[in-house]
Design a protein that fits this description.
Helix content of chain B: over 70%
Strand content of chain B: under 5%
Number of strands of chain A: 0
Number of helices of chain B: 6
Helix content of chain A: over 70%
Number of helices of chain A: 8
Number of domains of chain B: 1
Structural class of chain A: mainly alpha
Shape of chain B: globular
Radius of gyration of chain B: 20 Å
Distance between the termini of chain A: 35 Å
Order of helices and strands of chain A: HHHHHHHH
Structural class of chain B: mainly alpha
Number of domains of chain A: 1
Largest sheet of chain A: none
Distance between the termini of chain B: 19 Å
Oligomer: heterodimer
């Protein structure tokens, strides 16, 4: 969370204030913060289990691996969601964003995009934690997978803040929903392959 | 189930022969490109790079799809050979995508006036390159061959499905913010000489892929045999 706040501050100072109004950069700043925050959070997602050997216990439990994945996904979503819940008010304050009418839409977009990349991130962090360069490997693997949801979410955020009509939103919204369906399903199906001993 | 050293050696030998043939074919393609195909009216000689760039791009995309499919079968059958094939393919695929990413800007600078454009196709190929790099980075950081096979199969399958999503998202991004430059790298219809040369070049790239994969597959198989032999006793053949 402190990390998310720091990213916001850095993005703000990296902007040339005479050339670019704060609002023009706001969507990118928000999504860079969310993306980095999520990677940092996901890096720790399986580390605790790893350190205490708790994963073996979970694997012994008489539940299907798919259920284990969905549980882990929900936990990670909650964790990343908390980071985002802290970053969003900071973002509004730092960038002086008139949120008002856009808040509902922005929350929906955030939920959809976060679900998408955390779904892939959960399965990747389960793999990365068992490798030698875990902290390095996760971003290398995950960032390409973050591109479609981030492009859609940043585009949607910009349009929501500008109060654009629905016709300019639904294409990217559909993409986000499709991404979520495909990658949540696929990750659930593939998770047992990661967990087999 | 696993191949012997002799089989691995034979694969390397066959692969080397196919690779040499393919390289000779590549020379032939360039002879054709320079002597047989007409010079493009607007682009001039710069267009000749097309006979390497486009087939390399097609091959790189094809290899990743192939890896995804092979990985699905691997997770189902757990046959070590499929994993070896995917590993060999990934390295060759990385090479082809590097060729594509270097020849592209060389062509784009004189023709578009810029090295790079965030056009859907370019972005897609850049991320294809990143996927190959990530896949190989993952492979190189896992010791246990079984775990390595399963983990990298998961990445290959997810990556195969990511490719259309990246294309779609950048496409949406760009169509909503149109650029003044008209990006249309391919002419609507090619003269038959150009098309024929292009198809030959694609065939040559596929042959090059086959040859390099055979060599890499043989080398990979021998390495695994040596690792297994190192624990269990004598290495047969001394390979």
């Amino acid at each position: 969370m402190v990390f998310a706040a720091l990213v916001l501050v850095i993005v703000n100072f990296a902007r040339d204030p005479t050339a670019l109004p704060a609002l023009a950069l706001a969507p990118s700043a928000l999504w860079i913060t969310f993306a980095f925050g999520a990677v940092v959070a996901l890096n720790r997602a399986f580390a605790v289990e790893r350190e205490h050997g708790a994963l073996d216990g979970l694997l012994l439990a008489p539940v299907p691996r798919e259920a284990l994945y969905l549980g882990k996904l929900l936990a990670n979503l909650a964790f990343v969601g908390i980071v985002e819940a802290v970053a969003l008010p900071l973002f509004v304050v730092f960038f002086d964003v008139p949120l008002g009418h856009a808040l509902g839409g922005l929350l929906a977009v955030t939920a959809l995009a976060t679900t998408g990349f955390v779904a892939v991130g959960t399965i990747f962090s389960a793999m990365a934690v068992r490798t030698r360069f875990a902290e390095l490997l996760l971003p290398v693997l995950l960032l390409p997978f973050m591109v479609p949801p981030l492009i859609a979410a940043a585009g949607l955020t910009a349009r929501l803040l500008e109060g654009r009509p629905w016709s300019e939103l639904h294409g990217m919204l559909r993409l986000l929903i499709l991404y979520d369906i495909v990658f949540v399903t696929l990750s659930t199906l593939l998770f047992p392959a990661v967990m087999d001993e | 189930m696993s191949p012997s050293f002799a089989a691995a050696r034979a694969a390397v030998r066959r692969g080397r022969a196919v690779t040499l043939l393919a390289l000779a074919g590549m020379a032939l393609v360039y002879l054709l490109a320079l002597r047989y195909t007409p010079v493009e009216l607007h682009q001039g000689l710069a267009q000749k790079i097309f006979y390497l760039h486009v087939p390399a791009a097609w091959t790189a995309l094809l290899i990743f799809s192939l890896m995804g499919i092979v990985s699905i079968i691997f997770l189902w059958l757990h046959d070590e050979r499929l994993d070896l094939f995917a590993e060999a393919s990934a390295e060759v695929g990385l090479m082809f995508s590097a060729i594509m990413l270097t020849t592209g800007p060389i062509w784009a600078k004189p023709i578009w006036g810029t090295w790079w454009q965030w056009d859907p196709r370019l972005t897609l190929t850049l991320f294809l390159f990143f996927l190959y790099v990530g896949y190989l980075a993952l492979r190189s950081s896992i010791h246990d061959p079984l775990e390595r096979g399963r983990f990298s199969a998961v990445v290959a399958i997810l990556g195969m499905l990511l490719v259309p999503f990246i294309h779609l998202s950048v496409y949406l991004f760009r169509t909503l913010h149109p650029k003044p430059v008209v990006l249309k790298p391919s002419a609507p219809s090619l003269p038959p000489e150009m098309l024929r040369t292009l198809l030959i070049a694609f065939g040559v790239c596929l042959a090059l892929y086959a040859g390099l994969v055979m060599m890499r597959y043989g080398a990979g198989a021998a390495e695994r045999l040596r690792e297994a032999g190192g624990e269990g006793g004598e290495v047969p053949d001394g390979a």
